[in-house]
Amino acid sequence: MTIHILTVVPELLESPLSHSIIKRAQAKGLLQVHIHHLRKWAVNEYGQVDDYQYGGGAGMVMMPEPLANAIDELSKEQSFDEIIFLTPDGETLTQKTANTLSLKENLLFICGHYKGIDQRIREQYVTKEISIGDYVLSGGELAAAVLVDAIGRLIPGVLNDETSALTDSFQDNLLAPPVYTRPAEWRGSKVPDILLSGNTAKIEDWRYEEALQRTKERRPDLLED
Ligand code: 6GU
């Protein structure tokens, strides 16, 4: 899979994509992330990519021309399955969306800044608008990093048995059960006996029951689907 990201703050994306599983996905050749600085398509020698908003009001808006030129140029090299604008008024990211997007070949993410991007780009280019939750970030970059991580780890071959996504929270609409490691007794608190029993079938049942219990308590909305 190839993910292209358009941004005015590329530095914000570097570290989150250079470690751990997403680093390994890229090293294995299963994921390529290309970060593009929008200033490359600025309208003048000052690197301008934003302007005052029509109608007045505080905050700048990202101009349509640099974004359109960037998208057109990148689209010559590959056609994008989705052009995704990261924005707090997009559809809230879920594991289902991440699963669906992990099966695509070429994705383009647009990170908004300032007050957002000119509405005409959203109408003429963007195919999907995603938010990562009901709170406001200073720009789309951290949300884009979240989306790359959520998608990248699901690409077939990225995770091994030890890190398998099948037991993650939200796969099956259930939160993950509690986990323990050594020692079996720590500061007077014991690991549940069942986990030491070696009885795999019973352990699976226990984990399922714990997952269900945890979901009922913390996220009953997940069980309504
Ligand atoms: Cl995608 N962008 C911004 N700026 N804020 C957000 C967000 C995205 N998702 C939640 N808050």
Q: Give, in spatial order, the strands making up the sheet with the most strands.
A: 2-1-6-5-7
Work out the helix count. 7
Quick one: CATH superfamily of the largest domain? SPOUT methyltransferase, trefoil knot domain
Unreliable stretches (pLDDT < 50, length at least 5) are: none
What is the top-level CATH class of the largest domain?
Alpha Beta
Order of helical and strand elements: EHHEEEHEHEHEHEEH
CATH architecture of the largest domain: 3-Layer(aba) Sandwich
According to CATH, what is the topology of the largest domain? Alpha/beta knot
Major beta-sheet overview:
5 strands, parallel
Assign the structural class, choosing from mainly alpha, mainly beta, alpha/beta, alpha+beta, or little secondary structure.
Answer: alpha/beta
Descriptive report:
The structure is a single chain. With 225 residues, this protein is an alpha/beta fold. The chain is built from 7 helices and 9 strands. The strands form 3 sheets. The chain has a 5-stranded parallel β-sheet with strand order 2-1-6-5-7. The protein has a two-stranded antiparallel ribbon with strand order 3-4. The model has no long low-confidence stretch (mean pLDDT 96). The structure holds 6-chloroguanine (6GU). 6-chloroguanine is lined by residues 86-88, 131-133, 135-137, 139-140, 143.
